[in-house]
């Protein structure tokens, strides 16, 4: 499907992978709606990108996502939805102060998994009304993580949420096939984004040691480039694609 002429809704679009994707899709001729949680970051991202519409809200909230979808359909044909919103709160299952709070686990699953599903279902509803373009009424990209497959200590909640995204990708592709909507999940390895801002030098070294080639952290443009290809390539559907330079996360010791 062409990027040009479509409207793209990008959650988590005011920073990191989402913002790089917004820049890429804008350059390719799309209009973009960025959904983020922080009004200050939304304002800054809109100023930096120029021409992006921003909606502040929570991806796990039905009304907030409906408002973002409506903002997109007001602009034109909502043909692309990219789920980049996510949180990476860490915590061991059994720590020094006892078992991980259930609230902490639920918070991560709510933002990452329920939030992604919420955007998928409401974006799909709008896309189903589009005329097909190159055979597709819409393309949805979700962001998983290689943590879904080789999660580390302290990542049970995050890994569960990302494994959920990987697991629902094929059944959603099957559900949405009758509407000619494709869905693909990208599972990045460690990328240089604000999510890693708090990472210690020791953790960064450890992440770098796990990389194979290229021996560097991912650049948000690498992610944006794959999203653009997913939109373009009609045979990509129902799949989770690792984007990690052959990185395999090892034990944190
Ligand atoms: N950076 C990495 O190493 C890495 C690796 C694998 C996967 N990911 C995933 O990539 C995605 C993008 O993260 P990033 O690295 O660009 O970091 P980031 O922190 O810059 O972006 C995440 C964005 O999601 C927003 N967000 C969080 N919860 C939200 C909610 N409930 N509603 C709306 N917005 C919400 C945040 O405000 C932030 O803008 C995330 O899903 C993350 O889990 C990142």
Characterization of this structure:
- It comes from Streptomyces lucensis JCM 4490.
- This is Short-chain dehydrogenase.
- InterPro entries: KR_dom, NAD(P)-bd_dom_sf, Sc_DH/Rdtase_CS, SDR_fam.
- Belongs to the short-chain dehydrogenases/reductases (SDR) family.
- The chain has helices spanning 16-27, 39-49, 62-75, 102-127, 147-150, 156-176, 201-209, 220-232; strands at 7-11, 31-36, 53-56, 78-83, 94-95, 98-99, 138-143, 181-188, 240-243.
- The chain has 253 residues and is α/β, with parallel strands linked by helices.
- It has one domain: NAD(P)-binding Rossmann-like Domain (Rossmann fold), CATH 3.40.50.
- Strands 3-2-1-4-7-8-9 form a seven-stranded parallel beta sheet, with helices on both faces.
- Helix 1 (16-27) links the parallel strand 1 (7-11) and strand 2.
- Helix 1 (16-27) packs across helix 8 (220-232), helix 3 (62-75) runs parallel beside helix 4 and helix 4 packs parallel to helix 6.
- It is globular, with a radius of gyration of 18 Å.
- The model has no long low-confidence stretch (mean pLDDT 96).
- The chain binds nicotinamide-adenine-dinucleotide (NAD).
- Nicotinamide-adenine-dinucleotide binds next to helix 1 and helix 4.
Alpha-beta content class: alpha/beta
Strand order of the largest sheet: 3-2-1-4-7-8-9
Summarize the biggest pleated sheet. Answer: 7 strands, parallel
Our count of domains comes out at: 1
Ligands (ions, cofactors included): nicotinamide-adenine-dinucleotide
CATH topology: Rossmann fold
> What level of helicity do the residues show?
40-55%
Protein name: Short-chain dehydrogenase
Family: Belongs to the short-chain dehydrogenases/reductases (SDR) family.
Pfam family, one: adh_short
Keywords: Oxidoreductase
């Amino acid at each position: 499907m062409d990027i040009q002429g479509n409207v793209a809704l990008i959650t988590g679009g005011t920073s990191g992978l989402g913002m790089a994707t917004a820049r890429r899709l804008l350059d390719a001729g799309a209009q973009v709606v960025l959904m983020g949680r922080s009004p200050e970051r939304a304002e800054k991202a809109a100023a930096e990108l120029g021409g992006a519409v921003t909606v502040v809200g929570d991806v796990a909230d039905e009304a907030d996502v409906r408002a973002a979808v409506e903002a997109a359909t007001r602009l034109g044909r909502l043909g692309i939805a990219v789920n980049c919103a996510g949180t990476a709160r860490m915590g061991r299952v059994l720590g020094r102060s006892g078992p991980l709070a259930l609230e902490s686990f639920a918070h991560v699953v709510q933002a990452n998994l329920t939030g992604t599903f919420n955007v998928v279902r409401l974006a799909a509803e709008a896309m189903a009304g589009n005329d097909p373009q190159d055979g597709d009424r819409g393309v949805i990209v979700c962001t998983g993580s290689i943590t879904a497959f080789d999660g580390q200590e302290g990542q049970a909640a995050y890994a569960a949420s990302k494994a959920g995204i990987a697991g629902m990708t094929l059944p959603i592709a099957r559900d949405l096939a009758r509407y000619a909507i494709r869905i693909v999940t990208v599972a990045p390895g460690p990328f240089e984004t604000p999510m890693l801002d708090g990472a210690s030098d020791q953790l960064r070294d450890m992440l770098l040691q796990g990389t194979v080639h290229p021996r560097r952290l991912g650049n948000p443009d690498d992610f944006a480039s794959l999203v653009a290809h997913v939109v373009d390539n009609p045979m990509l559907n129902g799949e989770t694609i690792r984007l990690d330079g052959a990185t395999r996360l090892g034990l944190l010791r």
